[in-house]
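Q: Structure for this?
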Amino acid sequence: MVSSSSLSGLGTHGWRAPMDCLRASEMCNQNPQCSSRFRIMRQCLVGRDRTTMLANKECQAALEVLQDSPLYDCRCKRGMKKELQCLQSYWSIHMGLNEGEELYETSPYEPMHFSDEFRLASIISAMDSALSKGNLCSDTGKPCNPCLDAAKACNLNDTCKRQRSAYIATCNRATPITHNQEPCNRKRCHKALRQFFERVQTEFSYPLLFCSCRDKACAERRRQTIVPACSFEEKVKPNCLELRRTCRSDPLCRSRLADFHMNCQTTPHSITSCPNDNYHGCLVSYVGLIGSDVTPNYVDANHTNITISPWCSCRGSGNQETECEAFLRDFRENACLRNAIQAFGYGADAGFLPITESQSVVPSERPNLQPAIITKPVISSNDIKPVDSACVFSTCANLKDGGQKCSPSNSFECADESMLDPNMDGSIDSMDSHQSENNRARQSSASPASVSAVTVILSITLVSQVL
Amino acid sequence: KRTKRAKNGSKVCSLQEEEVTVSQLGLGYISDETVLFRYCSGRCEASRRNYDMTLAILKRNSKLIKEDLKKAKHRPCCRPTAYDKNISFLDNQSRYHTIHEVSARKCGCV
């Protein structure tokens, strides 16, 4: 498959199916000429900006040769194996090709298409949302909170629940050593967030992030999705261009940012304001930024007007003020991004359609929207009747009295369970202190109840183990 | 599923599940988030050992026995043998919490 044929033969034909950069660098390494230039190029790029690099004759020559190699056209896949290595290969050439300080860079990722999978998903979800539409937000008089529904759907899916708990636990935990300075381990939190969005089906993860809100409580829950206290906010707000520089020194962040710029760039001539009218592409690349240095989030719990931004400002930009504003505008005032988020959350709900959008486009432009989750909560919130839920606990682990009368059939098992051992505090302490680190302001009335309930349940566990 | 469970009282010990809100868990957290609570339920007669028989007979027959022996359980009990590690949620005051071992993962007659 991999041949060592001439460099030019493998060159710039790859527009349709670009080779991945791992394979491209493999092929290059099998060709003595290519591999030596590739090596030179990588040395050229170490710690140098573009102008000083191109001043060097040898570097320039290497770049020219490599432009004819498969490395020139190669791309990487999102979430591929060895993604980071692939991206490193990509940038080892493209750092030299791109202008160092230019606003936008070419994305190293394969262009996003509506794959067949997504077409299918959009058809199914269109049916789903059509079915559930009548019930949406109108059941049982409860306030409508699609973000809460999204959390429910996630909790009922084992993978989503596990991964969500993992990043919440990581991002919510104060590190013991740096306890007084840092609220959490930001690096680990970012990694856990990236894992969550990589490993959990978008069917579950996206509704958590892009749910539609009609009140503040919902919008606050949406804002809290990525645990912003750890993953987003910092004590100081850096200058946005400084943040971009930090991001561009890291191949992954640099790639995700370039990808965001490519897929969420406001496009004046398209109906949706998005490149190729591809909402899905924009959302995917937006999510790709979460867990990077330029992690974006909702800036407040405003439910009528969405504002997205990374944690940076344009204060102290000096003569680069204009460029900084342009960078920030791509987040804060991005019609494509805003339309894409609203289209996801609200579906074809006419009240929330962007003004520039025509009705006829909407149905086909809803890839992966309104997934099946919407149908579930409607059923199950009615399902949990008070009587049922009281009986949930009536296994042999009855809480003293209460339970007995609602467990007619299993009175046989453990019916004489009455003894509660109070000596089982060790694990409770560690658990509770864990929680209280993060919940200083928890309702004082809640805490004693919490501890005693935990005591009861753990004691019962002990009792059964003794038996 | 529900009706079958209701009429069938002789189901053997197994994992069951119920959707409940975090508030309903009764641990003092106030959150409308729904979680899946898995619990153990069912009969354990098949797992009775000679130990259980002897204990039952002793308790029934002897009048002058120690207090401890009277309290001893002579039936195996359907209990979790493994728990779900943890579950995290956002409470109604927008604070995250993680609770450990609140839901069963495996059941057994012990």
